[in-house]
Design brief:
Layout: H1 15-25, E1 29-33, E2 41-47, E3 56-59, E4 65-66, E5 70-74, E6 77-83, E7 88-93, E8 96-99, E9 106-110, H2 137-145, E10 151-154, H3 181-189, H4 193-196, E11 201-203, H5 215-222, E12 237-241, E13 244-248, H6 264-282, E14 287-291, E15 299-301, E16 308-310, H7 313-321, E17 328-333, E18 339-344, E19 346-352, H8 364-367, E20 374-376, E21 382-388, E22 394-400, E23 405-410, E24 419-421
Parallel strand pairs: 9-10, 10-11, 13-14, 14-17, 17-19
Antiparallel strand pairs: 1-2, 2-6, 3-4, 3-7, 5-6, 7-8, 9-21, 12-13, 15-16, 18-19, 18-20, 21-22, 22-23, 23-24
Pfam family, one: Metallophos
Signal peptide: 1-25
Protein name: Metallophosphoesterase
Length: 422
C-alpha cells in the first residue's frame, strides 16, 4: 500500500476523502462492563488485524498490572477482552481512564438508543440517523458526559438498524444495515464512544438483541468473556457495591403477549424469577435495584385505537404471584419508548426507553384512559440521572437529550406517591 504525504495534498479535500482518513485513524475504544464479581470485563474494539491495546489496572490490593487480553473477531473488527479483577479500582488505556465506583452516588440510566430504520411494506418510522434533531443519541451522550456520573446503566435495545426497504430514504444506510459490526458501530459504539471510554457501564440485553436478532454483537461486545453463543435466558447478574446491589434480570425473550401459565416458556420465566428472589433474600445487601428490559408494570399505546395496553403481562403475573422483597427499592426498565413511572403496592418502576429511537406517542384521547398509578410524561428523548441526597435517598432528574431538567422525582418507599416538579 502506498503512503500518502499530507503535505502533497490540496488545501481543500473532498469530504469523502477526509472521512476515509478519519476512519483509518480511528483509535481503539476501551470500555468496562460490570456484571457479577468474577465476570465483569474490559474490552477493546479496533480495526481487524490490529494488536491489542495495552490495558493496565490499578487495584485496591496491589500496584498497576497489565491485563492479558485475548483476541476474537466480529466481522471487520478485532475485540480484545479480559475479565476484570475483582479488586480493580481504575482501568487505564490509550482510550482513557475508567474508575470503578465503590459506592456510586450519581447514576445515569438510558435505554432504547438506536436509530430506527426497520420499515416493512412501507410501514413504520425511518429516522434520519444523520440528523441529530431526529436521532439525538449523540447529543444525549454529550449531555451525559457533563453529568460526571459514577456509573451508566443501559436498559437494552442498542441496535435498530436491522433492515430498511424504502428505496430513497434507506439509500444512505446501505453499509450499516443488518446484524454485523458496522450497524453496531454506527448505532452504539461510535456515538457512545466518549462515555464508553470514561465510565463503567451495566449492559442489559434488550429484545432487539435476542437470539433472532442482534445477539452476536451483544454477546461479543457487551457480555462477559466467553459468552459467545446465544441463550434464550441469560443468567441473572448481581453487581454489588457494598450494601447496594444492582440485579440485572434478563427478560429480553419474554413475550409481551400473555403466555399459557402451563407452558414451558411461562414456567421457565417463573422458575428463573423465583430463583432470583431466593438469591436476593439470602444476600446481605439491604438496598436493591432491579433492572430489566421489558417492564413489569408499563403501558404502551394501543395499536387498535385510543387506549393503552399493559407491557409485559407475563412479568406482572410472576411478580404478582411472588412479590418482590422489601429490600428491592426501585425497578428500572426500557422497551416502551417513553418515560413512565408506575407506582402501587410495589417498588416504584421507572421506564426509560426514550434515549434515541423513535418515540411512542400518547395523544390526548389515550392519556385520558391512563389508569391510576401510572404517570406517562410528555414525549421527549432523554435520560434519567439518579443522585443520592444528604439523607441517602435517591432523587431522579428526568432530563432531555440536551441535558435540561424536565422533571424532578423524589422516589421514596413503596406506596408513597412520586412527587414530580416541573
Amino acid at each position: 500500500m502506498s503512503i500518502i504525504s499530507l503535505k502533497a495534498l490540496p488545501a481543500v479535500l473532498p469530504i469523502s476523502f477526509l472521512l476515509i482518513i478519519s476512519a483509518c485513524a480511528h483509535k481503539p475504544t476501551t470500555y468496562v462492563g460490570l456484571a457479577d464479581e468474577g465476570t465483569s470485563f474490559v474490552k477493546t474494539v479496533s480495526s481487524k488485524g490490529l494488536d491489542c491495546e495495552k490495558v493496565s489496572i490499578e487495584s485496591t490490593s496491589r500496584d498497576f498490572s497489565v491485563l492479558d487480553l485475548k483476541k476474537t473477531t466480529f466481522d471487520e473488527a478485532s475485540i480484545c477482552e479480559a475479565t476484570l479483577p475483582k479488586d480493580a479500582a481504575i482501568v487505564r488505556s490509550g482510550s482513557g481512564e475508567i474508575t470503578i465506583p465503590k459506592n456510586p452516588r450519581r447514576i445515569v440510566i438510558m435505554g432504547d438508543t438506536g436509530c430506527r430504520l426497520k420499515n416493512q411494506n412501507g410501514k413504520g418510522p425511518i429516522q434520519k440517523c444523520e440528523d441529530e434533531k431526529e436521532w439525538p443519541f449523540s447529543r444525549l451522550v454529550r449531555a451525559v458526559e457533563k453529568e460526571n456520573a459514577d456509573l451508566i446503566i443501559h436498559v437494552g435495545d442498542y441496535h435498530y438498524r436491522e433492515a430498511c426497504t424504502d428505496p430513497v430514504k434507506c439509500k444512505p444506510y446501505e453499509g450499516t444495515l443488518g446484524y454485523g459490526f458496522k450497524p453496531w458501530e454506527a448505532d452504539f459504539l461510535r456515538p457512545a464512544e466518549i462515555l464508553l471510554n470514561q465510565k463503567p457501564f451495566i449492559f442489559v440485553r434488550g429484545n432487539h438483541e435476542d437470539c433472532k436478532r442482534a445477539y452476536e454483537g451483544f454477546n461479543k461486545l457487551l457480555s462477559p468473556v466467553g459468552e459467545q453463543t446465544c441463550v434464550e435466558d441469560q443468567g441473572t447478574r448481581y453487581t454489588s457495591f457494598g450494601n447496594f446491589l444492582i440485579v440485572n434480570f434478563d427478560n429480553a425473550t419474554v413475550d409481551d403477549k400473555p403466555l399459557d401459565s402451563k407452558s414451558a416458556a411461562f414456567k421457565s420465566l417463573q422458575d428463573r424469577y423465583k430463583k432470583m428472589i431466593e438469591t436476593l433474600k439470602a444476600r446481605p445487601e439491604t438496598e436493591v435495584w432491579l433492572i430489566t428490559h421489558r417492564p413489569i408494570w408499563g403501558l404502551a399505546p394501543s395499536w387498535s385505537g385510543p387506549g393503552v395496553a399493559p407491557v409485559n403481562i407475563n412479568m406482572e403475573a410472576v411478580v404478582r404471584a411472588t412479590p418482590l422483597p422489601s429490600k428491592v427499592k426501585m425497578v428500572f426498565a426500557g422497551h416502551i419508548h417513553s418515560f413512565q413511572i408506575a407506582q402501587g403496592n410495589h417498588p416504584p418502576e421507572l421506564i426509560i426507553g426514550e434515549s434515541g429511537t423513535s418515540l411512542d406517542i400518547y395523544d390526548e384521547a389515550t392519556r385520558k384512559v391512563i389508569p391510576p398509578g401510572y404517570t406517562v410524561f410528555p414525549s421527549d428523548h432523554g435520560y434519567a440521572l439518579l443522585e443520592r441526597d444528604a439523607s441517602g435517598k435517591w432523587i431522579a432528574a428526568i432530563k432531555s437529550f440536551d441535558g435540561a431538567t424536565d422533571f424532578v422525582c423524589k422516589v421514596s418507599e413503596i406506596g408513597i406517591p412520586c412527587d414530580t416538579i416541573k
